[in-house]
Amino acid sequence: MRLEEIPTPAYVIDQGKLRQNLEILAGVQKAAGCKVLLAQKAYSLYKTYPLISQYLSGTTASGLYEARLGREEFDGEVHVFAPAFKDSEIDAVLATCDHIVFNSERQLRHHVDKSRAAGVSIGLRINPECSTQGEHALYDPCAYGSRFGVTAEQFNPNLLDLIDGLHFHTLCEQNADDLVTTLKAVETSFGQYLHQMKWLNMGGGHHITREDYDLDLLISEIKRIKATYQVEVYIEPGEAVALNAGYLATQVLDIVENGIETLVLDTSATCHMPDVLEMPYRPPLRQGFDAGEKAFTYRLSSNTCLTGDVIGDYSFEQPVLIGDRLYFEDMAIYSFVKNNTFNGIGLPSLYLMDEAGDCHLIKAFGYEDFKGRLS
Fold it and tell me: What are the residue boundaries of the Orn/DAP/Arg decarboxylase 2 C-terminal domain, all occurrences included (predicted)?
């Protein structure tokens, strides 16, 4: 089927655009001499892992289930970080991963013996206390009171004999200049320890595949760190892997008039694109414009009972009619990994669009998927 023919709602992954992103990331990996990992928390459509593994070095996970998925479906390294690991799961985690990163000295000391026995490379997350977030405070791991990472004041040099590497993750949808700022803070606070490390993981949030991203600066900084400290460097972008490589197809069910015309869609911000409400985030819309920019402005909302389940106000060159189809863009990342069945709303189907434009069904969901999550 073509994109215009698939039943709605549906997520559609554009394999051609995914490949374009991967080629850019593979170019960074080669030029900088680093390893690029897929952060599965942003994108975990494992049907495409055979493609991604041709370009990237492995996956990162936020816990046991993602680690297992990376090990089972991706041919590459498996790295895992969590704020804390459960005693009941640590053996399974260690049997699955190649690198494990602990969030605190307490967690490190608690699990270090098992980690060593498993032959897993051990790391510690650090907090450089350098906030570069301008718009997304919700995603700032360096904010006051953050639970993520050990600060310079808390860092115990006696830990150096227990770890192989350091990990920081401070960015969110940012360019290389913010990485430069962060690295200065990292080197000021932890540079004396980096000389004793085997690797440094610079985390995610690098918007590498964005058009205005400064690839040369990223590559030069990675090469500088490698040369200065003789460490292997990892980066673990999630968004950059599948940025602008997916769509959410939806249909207009009704139009409600109350001060503004509201399109009731068969998709939902709350259920199908939570970042719209959490960040907040305004998804791009094919043939849609800012409110008031074109002749016909509508509020796009959903079929749930939540009053605030609103996607945003958009304008169009032509009137929108009941039955029309709309296509939200940049829907490969932080969408189906976070979706839910609140209000009994069904999960969108998953499609893969090949480079000829043909859409192939990966999986469809129904009532049993809703019911099975409840009891």
Answer: 12-331
